[in-house]
Amino acid sequence: MNTQECVYSHVRKIPKGKVTTYKALALLCDTSPRVVGKILHHNPNGSKTPCHRVVRSDCTIASGYAFGGPGIQREMLEKEGVKFEKNKVATHSFTSAIGSSVK
DNA sequence: CACATGACTATCC
DNA sequence: TGGATAGCCATGT
Question: Which A residues between 14 and 43 have a beta carbon under 7 A from any strand C atom?
């Protein structure tokens, strides 16, 4: 499976009210976080990819969000039940492992 | 085929 | 503790 499809698959497996980090996706896809972010920004798989549930390792919202702005992403997550600490995501809202691994 | 870029992460000052 | 710089990997030109 290509890194691209791999990342998309994992992002789609993120349960509602939960979030993940680029680093986690990178590890699951056996790649680097840079690639994960680049792929997600390239094109959310037909809006089926909840890229708004993907945040940085620092729990902060990603920069250059493509849905209208970081503020939008935060509100979307809050509506899904994700707790927020100021401009960061609550650590307890993270999914340690998304569904199943690729390999 | 080689160079440049990027939703990032980690280290240094 | 916080901001800036370097490193990394895949994709695109």
Answer: 31-32, 34-35, 38-39, 42
Neighbouring CB atoms inside 10 A of A34's CB total 10
Taking the model in full, what pTM does it have? 0.89
Tell me: pLDDT of A68 over 80: no
The SS3 of residue A85 is strand
**A21 forms bridges with which residues in the sheet?**
A55
Using the CB atom, is residue A85 less than 7 Å from strand C? no
Q: Which residue has the tokens 């998304």?
A: A98
- The whole-angstrom separation of Cα A89 and Cα A78 is 9
Instruction: Provide the pairing of β-strand A84-85 with A88-89.
Output: antiparallel
